[in-house]
Write a structure and sequence with these properties.
By secondary structure, the chain is an all-alpha fold. The protein is built from five helices and no strands. Keywords: Membrane, Transmembrane, Transmembrane helix.
């Protein structure tokens, strides 16, 4: 149960970070009206993929791969590769499910990725680096709280 709470809290904070990155991008590239719409829609669009990413991170952290032995930057880099591959796979599956295997499929996959998924790449990278940082901070706070309780006893 404790692990589930960690996953949900990390997900919520990472979604907040991803939303902030998205809003900065929208404000730089569009109008304030678009930013208001983005502030409402983006957290819902990135919640489930972020939850999946945090779950993958926690499972890799405790698996035989021992992700926690790497530094926060290396963890973020490895997660960003996984997230990038996930976005690419999502675009490929969307084309395959939508139109099946046909001539010109690679160019259609590229167009789909550029038009629908490229905007999520900076958000995915920000979330990929935020997840290990958030997890480390949460675990540091728990360790400090446990020491405080032990010192008081």
């Amino acid at each position: 149960m404790k692990n589930l709470a960690d996953i949900l809290l990390t997900t919520l904070i990472a979604v907040f970070v991803g939303t902030l990155v998205s809003l900065v991008m929208v404000l730089l590239l569009s109008t304030a009206d678009s930013a208001i719409l983005a502030a409402i829609l983006i957290p819902f669009n990135i919640f489930l993929p972020t939850l999946l990413g945090v779950s993958i991170y926690h499972s890799l952290k405790t698996s035989k791969l021992k992700l926690q032995q790497y530094g926060v930057f290396q963890q973020g880099f490895r997660l960003s590769i996984v997230f990038g591959a996930g976005l690419l796979l999502w675009a490929v599956l969307e084309v395959l499910i939508g139109s099946g295997i046909q001539a010109g499929m690679l160019s259609k996959m590229k167009r789909t990725f550029v038009s629908q998924f490229l905007g999520f790449v900076p958000v995915a990278i920000a979330i990929a680096f935020a997840i290990p940082i958030i997890d480390k901070k949460l675990n540091t706070n728990k360790t400090a709280a446990k020491r405080d309780v032990a010192d008081r006893l």
